[in-house]
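Figure 3 (text version): structure tokens given as input.
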């Protein structure tokens, strides 16, 4: 149809339609001024059908008087052949108010019209409960509405089941058709259920790992779409953006204490649900949160045990860590370990134990080591091992979600290859470490640069080790997973009693070696990501890591709830820990809830980091003949990036006799922070919040105590750290930082 004919026919149709109306011959006028001549568009609007199982449509099911919708319209003219259809004029926009069954334009002489020359149109509409007028002004932006119910108590603008934002998109409609708009929610609805805490008046939901976490939205005029919704981030002072919510009073009784939040669709694995003021509570580590969709409801059923979250039901097909009845009792542990290390098949009495794969071996059954020692000449006189074998770099050991019960040594010496999907249950080792053994752990002594440990579980582990005075060991590295990590460790899950305790074999001599002891890793030069706890069905077993250091030493000592000493990345860890170094001595004694000591090696430009870590529990520092630094996050920090690390723990330093000239520093978060003068302030959005903070006696005049740090560098200020979003609990007469000075010997030590 030619442009002229189309225009004439449309004009005749519109005039006939208008003249059919009563009195039209007297009142016929151009209906628009701002928008071009054409036929006025008519609209109907409704909510999407309510489906409470999968959709977040909530309680509102119909529009009411004074409800306002915002509509953008684009019109097109069809082109012949393969030519692209042309867009006609700028996109139109108008706001309409619902009155007695009709949608009345709020913008005078600006209602949406079909241009006579168009062939079809596309319409987009938004409904926001709080947007009661048209979006206008020079910038073409509405007010900002929060997803939090606490943003403005005088004029509540948080969202609930029957509020916005909602969006409707029509199908492609030919000229003149009535536009039917069906609205659905733009938010994903997430309910976190079965929370243990019930007395708090407010929770804060945040996602510190995502810099684009949005907790608000607004409508914006747009040339291309006419109107669109824009997600935005709002923060309060130095806080990260968050969504504040109270307990959900409408939650089903079987859900227990529930918090319901409304979120921009996206990935929320690793998000945090905290107490008011971002005091650490729980981290949502569920893999089911990685893709929340608009207009859908999600229920995360968790068991909350002292700050640790578990998804229910547990996925992955793991066998029972408490039941060894179906486990195969190995007759020849040394032979099994040698086969596994080389990637060879293994069987006993026609029972296939290891099956060979293209990459290595797969474990076919649970195993019971029955507390037998593969290095024992008495228990295995014909096949005992002089030392544990390495998992070779060419081998993948797939545990196939099975457990090894009652081991008394690490499974491998050094993991050079890949170890996946293996569980350790009820491992226990008590006694003196061999004078030549410098690394110790539940799965391995060392993870090499090529080594990978991923998706492993440890249920109940106790290491009570005596360290000898020896010239054969420079450094002892001891952790519940591995002694020293140079590779990659990820997705470690713990359960029950996890206890690591070290002491001197001969207290009169002490230990002639540096000591790095950590709840997961002794010394970390590789990476650790993803460490939390797990539960079995209907399991109320609490999970707690206890790290005790009783060694008397003349060299440096570092004790941490996660790592003893780290100079590489650790992230996404949520644990409850007790770190007790109160009976230890070192010339330099560092104690922390997450790490005794963290530093970036000199000459390294990459910003090694601790990110998204939360611990609860307690930290007690030890004696230092030269210095002793104690903190809820770390005892000593040197040129290291810290982001979203939160310590909800009591912190106490050594408070007995202090050697003359010894320096003591205690902080809720850090004992001592050291940075070179050209380094920026590298600590962000981290906090301490505990019930107790005590520092060493000030009798020596060289002791420092602060809620954030005992010591910060001379070239830094409290304000620099506070402006980065770092917060602490206020304690009378205790400053944010105890003192400004530059700690010496920054380049010494390993």
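Below: residues designed for each position.
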């Amino acid at each position: 149809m030619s442009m002229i004919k189309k225009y004439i026919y449309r004009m005749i149709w519109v005039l006939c339609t208008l003249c059919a109306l009563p009195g039209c011959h007297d009142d016929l006028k151009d209906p628009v001024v701002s928008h071009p001549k054409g036929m006025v568009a008519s609209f109907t609007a409704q909510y999407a059908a309510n489906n409470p199982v999968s959709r977040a449509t909530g309680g509102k099911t119909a529009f009411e008087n004074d409800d306002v919708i915002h509509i953008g319209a684009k019109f097109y003219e069809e082109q012949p052949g393969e030519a692209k259809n042309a867009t006609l004029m700028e996109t139109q926009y108008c706001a309409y108010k619902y009155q007695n069954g009709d949608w009345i334009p709020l913008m005078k002489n600006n209602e949406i019209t079909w241009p006579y020359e168009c062939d079809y149109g596309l319409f987009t509409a938004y409904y926001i409960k709080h947007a009661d007028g048209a979006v206008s002004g020079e910038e073409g932006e509405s007010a900002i509405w929060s997803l939090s119910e606490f943003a403005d108590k005088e004029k509540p603008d948080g969202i609930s089941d029957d509020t916005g934002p909602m969006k409707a998109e029509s199908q492609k409609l030919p000229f003149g058709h009535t536009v039917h708009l069906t609205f659905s929610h733009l938010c994903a609805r997430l309910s976190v259920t079965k929370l243990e805490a019930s007395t708090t008046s407010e929770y804060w939901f945040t996602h510190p790992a995502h810099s684009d976490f949005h907790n608000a939205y607004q409508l914006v005029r747009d040339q291309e779409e006419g109107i669109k919704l824009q997600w935005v981030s709002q923060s309060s002072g130095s806080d990260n953006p968050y969504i504040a919510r109270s307990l959900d009073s409408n939650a089903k009784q079987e859900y227990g204490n529930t918090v319901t939040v409304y979120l921009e669709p996206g990935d929320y694995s690793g998000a945090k649900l905290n107490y008011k003021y971002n005091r650490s509570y729980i981290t949502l580590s569920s893999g089911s949160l990685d893709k929340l969709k608009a207009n859908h409801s999600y229920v995360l059923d968790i068991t909350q045990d002292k700050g640790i979250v578990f998804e229910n039901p547990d996925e992955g097909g793991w066998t029972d860590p408490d039941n060894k009845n179906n486990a195969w009792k190995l007759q020849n542990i040394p032979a099994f370990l040698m086969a596994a290390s080389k990637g060879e098949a293994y069987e006993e009495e026609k029972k296939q134990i290891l099956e060979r794969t293209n990459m290595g071996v797969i474990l076919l059954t649970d195993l019971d080591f029955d507390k037998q020692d593969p290095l024992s000449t008495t228990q295995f006189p014909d096949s005992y091992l002089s030392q544990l074998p390495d998992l070779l770099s060419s081998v993948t050991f797939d545990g196939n979600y099975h457990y090894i019960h009652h081991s008394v040594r690490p499974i491998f010496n050094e993991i050079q290859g890949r170890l996946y999907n293996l569980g350790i249950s009820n491992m226990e080792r008590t006694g003196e470490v061999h004078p030549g053994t410098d690394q110790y752990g539940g799965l391995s002594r060392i993870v090499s640069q090529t080594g990978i440990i991923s998706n492993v579980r440890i249920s109940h582990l106790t290491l009570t080790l005596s360290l000898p005075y020896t010239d054969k060991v420079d450094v002892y590295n001891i952790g519940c997973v591995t002694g020293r990590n140079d590779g990659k460790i990820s997705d470690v899950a713990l359960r029950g009693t996890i206890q690591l305790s070290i002491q001197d074999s001969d207290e009169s001599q002490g230990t002639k070696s540096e000591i790095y002891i950590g709840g997961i890793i002794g010394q970390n030069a590789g990476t650790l990501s993803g460490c939390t706890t797990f539960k079995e069905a209907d399991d109320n077993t609490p999970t707690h890591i206890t790290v005790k250091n009783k060694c008397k030493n003349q060299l440096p000592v570092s004790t941490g709830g996660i790592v003893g000493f780290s100079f590489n990345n650790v992230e996404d860890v949520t644990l409850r820990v007790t770190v007790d170094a109160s009976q230890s001595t070192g010339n330099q004694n560092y104690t922390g809830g997450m790490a005794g000591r963290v530093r970036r090696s000199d000459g390294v430009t990459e910003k090694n980091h601790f990110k998204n870590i939360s611990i609860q529990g307690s930290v007690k520092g030890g004696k230092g003949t030269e210095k002793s630094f104690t903190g809820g996050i770390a005892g000593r920090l040197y040129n290291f990036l810290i982001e979203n690390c939160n310590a909800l723990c009591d912190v106490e330093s050594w408070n007995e006799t202090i050697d003359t000239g010894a320096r003591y520093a205690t902080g809720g978060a850090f004992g001592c922070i050291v940075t070179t003068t050209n380094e920026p302030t590298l600590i962000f959005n981290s906090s301490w919040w505990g019930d107790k903070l005590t520092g060493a006696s000030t009798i020596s005049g060289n002791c420092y105590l602060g809620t954030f740090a005992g010591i910060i560098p001379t070239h830094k200020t409290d304000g620099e750290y506070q402006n980065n979003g770092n917060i602490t609990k206020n304690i009378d007469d205790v400053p944010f930082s105890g003192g400004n000075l530059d700690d010496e010997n920054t380049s010494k030590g390993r």
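Helices lie at 3-19, 24-27, 333-342, 718-723.
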